[in-house]
Each structure stands twice: as C-alpha cells, then as structure tokens.
Design goal:
The complex is a heterodimer of chains A (170) and B (275). Chain A is mainly β and 170 residues long. Chain A contains two helices and ten strands; from the N terminus they run H-E-E-E-H-E-E-E-E-E-E-E. Chain B has 275 residues and is mainly β. Chain B contains three helices and 19 strands. In chain B, the strands form three sheets. In chain B, strands 2, 5, 6, 9, 10, 11, 15, 16, 18 and 19 form a ten-stranded mixed beta sheet that branches. In chain B, strands 1, 3, 4, 7 and 8 form a five-stranded antiparallel beta sheet that branches. In chain B, strands 12, 13, 14 and 17 form a four-stranded antiparallel beta sheet that branches. The chains are: A mainly beta (170), B mainly beta (275).
Chain lengths: 170, 275
C-alpha cells in the first residue's frame, strides 16, 4: 500500500479515476471429485506487453489446519504465472489484496486497481488447485479512467466467468 | 593406485575399465550423462525442503545406470552460506540428499571434482598415478622423465530458489569450466531464452560446445536436443521450447582424455516453468 500511495502522490493522480473501485467477478466451478480442495486464485493487471501492473486479489490458504506448521504460503508458487510476475516479490498477507480461498460459486468482490492511468491493459486470472489443474485466463481491457471496456473471459477447467467492471460506488 | 576421496566419477571408471580401455572410457566422452535433479526449483513460504537426485544415465532424468557419488557436494545458500545436505544416500542407481532452505534466496548445488591422471618413467619403469588435483604434488615427481599429465575437471550443478531469486550465488566459482547464469536459472519459462556465459577458470571462453537436452523420461522417442557453441564473449543463448527440466553440458579441451592435456566439463540442470 505504501508504494501505491507514494506513487499516487508523486504522479499527482489523485483526481478522477485514481481511487476507482472495480468490481471483479470470479466464478469457481464446482468440480465433483472425491477430494476437493479450494483453488488458490490470483487476479492481477498487466500491460499488453506482459509487464506487471498491479494485484487485484490473491486467495490462498491463510489458515491451514492446525499442526501443519505452515501458513499456506508454501503453495503460492503453484500460481506459477503470478508467482513469477509478482508473488515472489511480496510479503504475504497483502492488505486489500489477499484473502482466504473461496468455495465453488460466483464471487463478486470489490478490488482496487490503484492509480491506474487510462490505457490498454490485460486482466489476468490464474487458479491452481491441489490434486487438480491450473488455468490462466487473459482478458484485454481498455481503461479510460472511468469505465472498463473488455476485461471478460471464461475458463474451461479451474475457472468459470472472470470479469472486471466499474464499481457503482464511484 | 591411489584414489582420493573425491571423484567418484573417476573411481567408477577405473573400477570398471581395464587400463587399455581408459582412453575410451574417460567420463565426458561417455554417452552417459551426469546430472542433478532437484524435486523443485522454485519454492514459496518461509522455509522449504527440496530433495535432489544425483545419477549417471543415458536417459534424462531416469536413474538407470549408476549413482553420481556425493563426494565433492557443496551447497551455497543466500550470502554464500554453506548448507549441509541431509539424509545423504547412495544406492545402486542414484544418490540423493535433502536440503532445508531456511532463508529466502537462491541456492547453488554443486558437485565439483578436479582429477589428474599422470604417467612417467622411473628407472625404465612406467609409473602411473590418478587422484585429485590437490594431491598430485605429493604423489607425482615434478621433474619426472616422460611425465604426461591429463587433467579432468568436472562440475555438475543446479540452482533452486526460495522466494525471490537472488544473484549472489551466481558468481563464477573461478575453477574449472562453468555455465555462469546471466539470466537467472530459476527465472526461466517455456518459450523463452536464457543466456549463460561459459567460463574456464573464471574467464569467458569462446567456441565451447554446449549441449541442451530436455529430460523427457523414457517415454518420449525424440526428446528435444541441440548443440550450441559459445560466442566470442563466452555467451550462449539457450531457447527452452517447452516447460520441463533441461540438461546443459559444456565441454572443453581435449576430446580424448588420457592423453596429456586438460578436459573440463560442466553440467547444469535448469527447469523451464510453464507460462
């Protein structure tokens, strides 16, 4: 957060758009298997050239079972694309970004893209499930500082619908 | 015939081979490949364990021939700190050991040996000595008649990273042949290119042949393999066509060890991660 606010102040971007809230929709498919584990999910924004911009959400096993002697970060590397782009640089948990894993279903959450200058971006969603697979979705979007054009994708295995749109509360 | 505690490789060769066959049997000329294979190369969390297999085989990375002996194993962690291998084991087909990564950063895992074969005449009789380079002075007269020395440097390596990749352990050791990473070896993904610098005794070396082979197991008929050559600055650009473990070998020097001269070989295992 500090970096974000510092960047915000430095860039003088505290006008329209700087504090936009986005609504993210992430659908986690129900998968009928004997041993189901909720997936780790990361949602972030890249530039079209693949460079990392900002994290929107990371859902991981924050409180694993007692006695495992582990805080669930050991499997963050399984979000391979995210781990390489951003995860390995972070100290978990991250305020406003990380949260616990979620069950199958449609999840609509507020996410904060930070002071994002208008331009073209790519929404990336990655899910990795223990005893399951991994899926990465990329959804190009245009951001004019107020609203999002694009930013929708549909997965085939570990993710269903994934979308970001402009929040109502602006 | 003296053997030092290091160089299981040579020991193996000598145990198996009659002296006459030595020319053909010297390690780098063998089709058999030396390798280390870590259970993971990229790890997260506050601490982690990896286990590493070490073997000599034809098929990468299938243990089907001989173990790679663990004498000469050195693991350097963040800040150059030495990490002890745990649960060392050498079996029929492979050796293995565990590493506890307790500090974020990159760890360099090496088995490096420098060995010497010498022959000379003493009172009309041919004498021979084989052993680690460090013990040669004690065992071979410096001014012997018809002295012939053949030196063989072998380095087998891999890297693993807990958390954010660090570059401190990537610096060249400065001894023997090395594939010194320019691109961080734990930051390599399918479809990308990575740059390494071939160095001999810490100096870039041009024109060294580098073999790149994908470890595809025994169920792939034609695993990816190519031969490259280091450029003027010692650099070699390696393209990884798909995710998986890759075996890189650089070899320099006399291709027929046993004759006077020096042969140096370096093996590096790299995992290209899925995009």
């Amino acid at each position: 957060m500090n970096r974000k606010w510092a960047a915000l102040a430095a860039a003088g971007l505290a006008q329209a758009g700087a504090q936009a809230q986005w609504q993210a929709v992430v659908e986690i498919p129900r998968i009928e298997v004997a041993e189901y584990h909720r997936p780790y999910v990361a949602l972030w924004v890249e530039k079209p050239d693949g460079s990392f911009v900002t994290n929107l959400a990371v859902w991981y096993d924050i409180r694993p079972k007692k006695g495992q002697g582990d805080d669930g970060t050991a499997w963050l590397k399984d979000l391979r694309a995210w781990w390489r782009k951003s995860g390995r640089e972070l100290t978990m948990p991250v305020d406003g970004v990380s949260g616990p894993t979620r069950p199958p279903g449609r999840h609509e959450v507020s996410v904060n893209p930070g002071p994002l200058p208008p331009g073209e971006y790519v929404l990336v969603a990655e899910a990795a499930r223990e005893l399951g697979g991994r899926e990465v979705l990329r959804a190009p979007l245009k951001w004019d500082g107020k609203s999002i054009d694009g930013g929708q994708a549909r997965g085939k295995s570990e993710l269903g619908q994934v979308e970001v749109r402009t929040g109502k509360g602006r | 015939m003296k053997f030092g505690k290091c160089d299981g490789l040579l020991r193996l060769v000598f145990r198996l081979a009659p002296a006459a066959a030595l020319l053909a049997m010297a390690p780098p000329a063998l089709a058999h490949r030396f390798w280390l294979l870590p259970s993971s190369t990229v790890l997260s969390g506050a601490e982690a364990w990896v286990t590493v297999d070490a073997a000599v085989s034809n098929t990468l990375f299938v243990f089907e021939h001989r173990p790679l002996r663990l004498e000469g194993l050195v693991v350097s962690g963040p800040g150059g700190k030495r990490i002890e291998g745990r649960n060392l084991h050498t079996g029929q087909f492979r050796s293995s050991f565990d590493l506890h990564l307790d500090t974020p950063g990159t760890y360099r895992i090496s088995i490096a040996n420098q060995s010497v074969m010498a022959s000379w005449k003493e009172g009309g009789e041919v004498k021979r000595w084989r052993g680690p380079a460090t013990e040669m002075a004690k065992n071979v007269p410096a001014q012997a008649e018809e002295l012939q020395v053949s030196r063989n440097d072998m380095r087998v390596e891999t890297y693993v990273t807990l958390g954010k990749p660090a570059r401190d352990v990537l610096a060249p050791a400065g001894a023997g042949l090395e594939l010194v990473p320019d691109t961080h070896p734990n930051d390599v993904a399918a479809g990308e290119e990575a740059v390494f610098v071939v160095m001999l005794d810490g100096k870039p070396m041009a024109g060294v042949e580098v073999t790149v082979a994908q470890g595809a197991g025994r169920h792939v008929e034609r695993p990816f393999e190519q031969k490259l050559r280091s450029g003027e600055d010692g650099r070699v650009r390696v393209h990884f066509p798909a995710a998986g473990y890759y075996w890189l070998q650089a070899a320099s020097g006399d291709a027929a060890p046993g004759r006077p001269g020096r042969r140096a070989t370096c093996v590096l295992t790299v995992e290209a991660l899925p995009q």
